[in-house]
Amino acid sequence: MSFGGPESIQPVRDASLRAAARALARLDRHVLRAISAFRSLTGGILHGACTPAEAARLTIALFDHSLARSDPERGLFDWERSWYAAVLPPAPARVLVTAAGAGREAIVLERQGYAVDALEPSSRGAAECARRLAPTSLVTAASYQDVARSILDGHLNSCATIARQTYDAIVLGWTSLTNVLVPTDRERLLMACDRICPSGPILASYWVGGVSPSRAGRLGRRIGEFLRRRGAPRLAPGVEFVPHAGFVVRIDERELAQVAGRLGRRFERAASAPFAHGTFVK
What we know:
CATH architecture of the domain at 64-209 and 250-281: 3-Layer(aba) Sandwich
CATH class of the domain at 64-209 and 250-281: Alpha Beta
Radius of gyration: 24 Å
Strand order of the largest sheet: 3-2-1-4-5-9-8
Structural class: alpha/beta
Order of helices and strands: HHHEHEHEHHEHEHEEHEE
Largest sheet: 7 strands, mixed
Number of helices: 10
């Protein structure tokens, strides 16, 4: 009895491989949908359960945890490089980088001849940033709320030294304005920046657009609300939880223009890029 040669078997093998590929593709889609639903559910639970203060602390803790995977030597993104070149005063101007992480933006600016100070809410990130910058740089572990309280309200906290400085420009670190969840907190931050950088540009990048919570996310929010302490303040509906970025809010650029006007500035949105960004200028 003959079972045929390789030529007769190959079509059967090819058909089996195609069937296996289709099955794997379906399985992959199911797995990705399950992961997405799980992330939406857990994000919704966190949204419902956390107060604004708890959300801020969780976001800082996530960034602190991610430092081990970050590479502060990777340099600027192309859109950042073009933006900085267009709006920053020439070196050796004095620049403050906030939410500096381990120093990605600050390192580049220092190598370009700028005098750079930095703020970072993660104590580990601040220590790593300080290690990489010149000893003359002021590097402080502080949140944006700490910044506003020190500069606007005179609170004696870790930002006290920064509060006494004057800068030629301020760079709000990569999309960090998006992590400031409350509009009044965003305005206070920008007021504080204007106070210590009265004439120079203030650079900000942020997320825009609207995203409605999924079915799993809505279920998670209901569960989280049940878990939240009675009477505790809740997060605004527009706040969302993103695993790699913590709690974020997508910002309406009309708000930025209005705040700029109250500061005697104008907000100039930059050209399209992977992340929306613009400059508060005098």
